[in-house]
Structures are given as C-alpha cells and as structure tokens.
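pasting for ref
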Amino acid sequence: MKSHYSGRVLFAVAVTAAATLTGCAGGSGGSGGPLEKTNIVVDAFPAIDSAGLFIAEQRGLFKQQGLNVTIKLASTSQTAIDGQLAGTYDVTSADYVTYFDNVLLKKAPLRIVAESSFLQPNVLALLVKPGSTVRSVRQLSNQVVSVNAPNDIGTLLVDSLLRDNGVSSGAVKFNNHVDFPDVAASLASGKVDAAFAPEPFVSLDAMNAGTQELADLDQGGTTNFPIQGVAVTQAWAHDNPNTLAAFERAYAQGQEIADTDRSAVEAAVEKFLGLPPLAAAVISLPNFPTGVDAVRLQRLVGAMVRFGLLGKQYESFKASSIAGNG
C-alpha cells in the first residue's frame, strides 16, 4: 500500500462527503447550474486502468451527481475514439498514445478531461509462453512481438524497452492485431514469440496458461509512464459544461477510492471485467491519479517523437493545450 495511504483516504472521505451534499439537488450537478444531459455513455478500454470509472458507477457516485452513466467496453482505444467522433459515445477512456495520435495526426477535436492511470510495476508486461527459449529482451531480435493495435501505447512501451536493451525496433517483427484475450493462445501456437499485455490479462494468462513475464514495462524511460485517460470532444465539452463538471466530480471520487482501497478495485473488476475473485486478488495495480497533470502528459509527446510515432515537427506541441476542461 502506498505511503500516502492515510492522507489520501481522509481526502477521499472529504471529497465524497462534499460531493454528496452538492449532488443532492435533484440532478443539479452541484453549484454550476442544471445538467445539460443526464444520460451519458462511456466507452472504456477493459483494463485495470478503468477501475476508478467502474467504482464510480458501482458505488452510485455518478447518480449522486444526477448522472445516469452507461459503461460500454471497447475492443481497442481507436474503436472507442471512432465511436466518440461519430457521436455514439459521450466520453471515452483510452490510452494516451492513441488520443495524441488522433489529435495531432488526424486532427480530431478531443480534450483530455481526467487521468485514469500511470504505470506501476507489473501492470504492463511482455509475456512469453512456458518454456520459451526467449529468456531476455536481447533475444527478441528477428522475433515476432504482438501488440493489440498499431501505433498505440504498446508500440511505444515495447520500443522503449528494446532501445534500453540495445535492440533496434527494426530488428523485431511486430504483429499489430493480437487482441489481449488471444495472447496466451498466440504464444502457445507459435504465432508470436512475445506479447504485450496489460492487467488483468497478465495475471489471468499466468494463472490459466502458465505464461511468463519476460519484462516489466515499468522501467527505464517509461517508469511511472502515463497510460490511460478520459476524453470528450471539444464540442461536447462546450455544449455540456455542467454535465462534464458533474462527471469529473464523481470520477475523481472513484479514482481516490481506487488508489486507496484495493478491495474496491477487486470488486469492480470482478463485476465489470468478469474476473474470478482469485485473479482479482493477485492483479497488479497502476496509480490512479485525479485531475489532469499536463507536465506528466508532456512525457507522451517527447516519447512519441523519440520513437517515431510523431514527426519532429511536434516536439514543441504542448499537452496542456488539450488537457483540462477549460
């Protein structure tokens, strides 16, 4: 448990109590005026990073703010964003690399309004099958490594790991389309030699298929790296400021609970991700921050330029220009 446990718990209790008082005015959303929308749909990537969102829904924190929130589970971050831009979803929770790719390269009008997670040990890992002859990152040269989508957080983290271990990313063959539920089978069949995976799949595959962790991705240049956030479109934020503020209040409460109460995380992932209790009890957890730290998100820009996911013309881009609800 984190050393700041007691202080964060007291803060969480205070926030929860205050929000409960302000959220009792029949869906007013607090002192900011009436909610523009009360029914919203969130499409979230189904990983441990979404635990704060799940907790906020499970504990009725959104309802305390006058919101009826429906949570959908996305197959990839890009499909979530595609649905959001098409108007199917009000809010998405996806990986930051995909958000920045959409904003900068595809000119998508997105705004990051909350953080979901940043890395802690063993939350994101590179896996191999039981008895694999690949026993070090250096042995990945000329091997096939899977990620679940091209040019997303997995690509960046694996590239960083390879560089830190003296392996050129060009020496590795990437399979960009192995869904996380298929990782263990792809490793067992020899389709791939190593696979990027997040929790809860890291723990599930170890329990069910005996997969082994070749490397923890919380190391080197990506230690404590920001992973997943929450975004709306610029137009949605403009048209629904009170609804957005109400959502953010409830979401922050969920994040505070996720960061201080492991049992709450376990209950949430059992319900929303269908994890058996034994798996929920052993998964590794990221840090669940509140608000938006533009300095932390600036690391994304530097890393994406460094590993070729963004051109050098984006080196001066300020993450603060798309972060926050202003």
